[in-house]
Amino acid sequence: MKKLLLLDADVIFDLHTLGLFEKIARTYRLYVTKTVLGEAKYFKREGLKQKINIRDDVTVINDVALDSLSCVRTEAKEARLGIDPGELESIAYLSTAKEEIRFCTCDKAAIKLISYMGLELRSISVEQAVRSAGHHKKILFPRHLDKTFKECIKEGKALRIQFKKLI
Amino acid sequence: MKPKKVAEALHQRIVAARESAGFSITEASQKLGFKHYQILSAIEKGTRNINANELIEMSRLYGRVLDYFFEPEVSREPSPLWRKIEKSNIQKEQRQFLLFLEKYSNLENLLGLKRRWTEIRSSYDRDDFKNDGFVVADKLGADIHKKLDLGSRPACNLLNVLENNLRFKILHMSLKDGVSGASVVDDTLGVGILVNMKDAPWRRHYDLAHELFHIVTWNIFSPEEIGDGTKKTKPEQYADIFASSLLLPAGHLIEALKEISTNNEIKKVDIIELAKDFGVSTDAILWRLVNLKKLTRAQVQKIIADPEFHNLDRTLRRGLYGEYKTSKFPARYISLACRCLMEGKISRGTFAECLEIDRGEVDDYLAEMGFAEQNYEKIAVA
């Protein structure tokens, strides 16, 4: 079973709102950091709040080292991106993880940072993730689409050239 | 910095962050979900390792950005000037205020915006105030009124001008009773003003003008001279005179007074109408009329001592609270946060933290504020 790190709470909200979380959970072994798990409290469907309970469906990462967090924070600062602590922790985990794991997010700033750090090959868009889970209906939001994801990857690479002078 | 020194600095900052946020070690331990306070104590002493999640939880509880814990050097925390009637602990409110300024400055930096607050600083110096401080404060109020082009009813425009023209960072918070607000000038954070949103709208206008005096004269009076607002020090009295002069420009007030009075007489209800018109309290109007030699001190003291006058004032203004409802965050701050989010400069989580909304509410918030993806498509400007 492929491993997938859900990078932030938004992707968890959206998968619940679209009714796709269970499908994804059947296809991938899901990982989330403790901070992200704490943020994913409820989602909204048709204006109503519904509680999220994914504790039994995911592996919770609780041992991200401070040094890794510090490094990712420095990278985000360098790239002039304001990334929230939960996402920084997820990227910190990913940047040091030895196992084969991919991560998924729909946050533009986070995708740019991933690309800025040269981690884009380890990431997939929400659209790709749900397709792999066998879902092909067009119900996704613009931020989930592969097109949006690729644009952000491109922008992240441009930032890499601008601030790191690396191609 | 060497790794050992980095670790030492981290532990020191964890302690400093907790203390400046006003938490005891026991209280903080409970809120952070530690089983015993000894765990936090060990983290602070450096005898127990801390992981990323624990530091993130601390940063949220203590109202600090992560940078505070990681940067090799942190600048000294600015000290806002507080305005309060009695001695009260304002540590938590101060941290919230400073955190707002940090977030606001960060949004400005991400968008490459410049600050323009230096334009407003006074050309007067200490000696000018020494000779005849009240006259100078009055003149300064009139000068700033003119400079900012505040018009005949300055209270209506002041907030907007300070936020959008001068780029002051103005936060409205529900503060404890007896605390009106605070102001701060800092090279990194810019100019910040904190106003108690529980106060009546006309009171808030006055507080804003009062704090403006402290900003304009930031380099003239020391914090010790100004005090914490519990005593009416000389600079505090100057600030009140300045606020009156700024919000109640002599020419416009006299003109309005002429219109409303008959045979050189005015009714009590007219005073209230004037106060409503200028967006200030009746006390402010009355003392300004004394200052302009239109009423005597004895007349004003008699009116102020009359409970019926205050009842009438309350009755006539009852409906105005809703009309002047204010939001916690300034429109410019919200707009910058939306721009940063739409341009992918901040994450959705950072956006939610900036606006203190739940992360799950971001889409609804944006829709409610009228922000939509297509509104951020770029159009070339000639």
Greatest interface and its participating residue counts: A-B, 44 and 36 residues
The secondary-structure element order of chain B is HHHHHEHHHEEEHHHHHHHHHHHH
Global morphology of chain A: globular
> How many angstroms does the end-to-end distance of chain A come to?
33 Å
Q: Which architecture of chain A per CATH?
A: 3-Layer(aba) Sandwich
What is the structural class of chain B? alpha+beta
In brief:
The complex is a heterodimer of chains A (167) and B (382). Chain A has eight helices and seven strands; from the N terminus they run βααβαβββααβαβαα.
Protein model, in words:
The complex is a heterodimer of chains A (167) and B (382). Chain A has helices at 9-17, 21-27, 34-39, 66-78, 85-96, 108-116, 126-132, 146-164, and strands at residues 2-6, 28-33, 42-45, 48-51, 58-61, 102-104, 123-124. In chain A, strands 5-2-1-6-7 form a 5-stranded parallel sheet. In chain A, strand 6 (102-104), helix 6 (108-116) and strand 7 form a beta-alpha-beta unit. Chain A has 167 residues and is an alpha/beta fold. Chain A is globular, with a radius of gyration of 15 Å. Chain B is built from 20 helices and 4 strands. Chain B has a 4-stranded mixed sheet, with helices on both faces. In chain B, a hairpin with a 3-residue loop joins strand 3 and strand 4 (190-196). At the A-B interface, helix 1, helix 3, strand 3, helix 4 and helix 5 of A face helix 4, helix 6, helix 19 and helix 20 of B.
Write the layout of secondary structure elements.
The complex is a heterodimer of chains A (167) and B (382).
Chain A: E1 2-6, H1 9-17, H2 21-27, E2 28-33, H3 34-39, E3 42-45, E4 48-51, E5 58-61, H4 66-78, H5 85-96, E6 102-104, H6 108-116, E7 123-124, H7 126-132, H8 146-164
Parallel strand pairs in A: 1-2, 1-6, 2-5, 6-7
Antiparallel strand pairs in A: 3-4
Helix pairs in contact in A: 4-5, 6-8
Chain B: H1 3-20, H2 25-32, H3 37-45, H4 52-61, H5 67-70, E1 81-84, H6 91-110, H7 126-147, H8 154-165, E2 169-173, E3 179-186, E4 190-196, H9 201-216, H10 223-226, H11 234-247, H12 250-260, H13 268-278, H14 282-291, H15 297-304, H16 307-317, H17 320-323, H18 331-342, H19 348-354, H20 362-368
Helix pairs in contact in B: 2-3, 6-18, 7-11, 8-9, 9-11, 13-14, 13-16
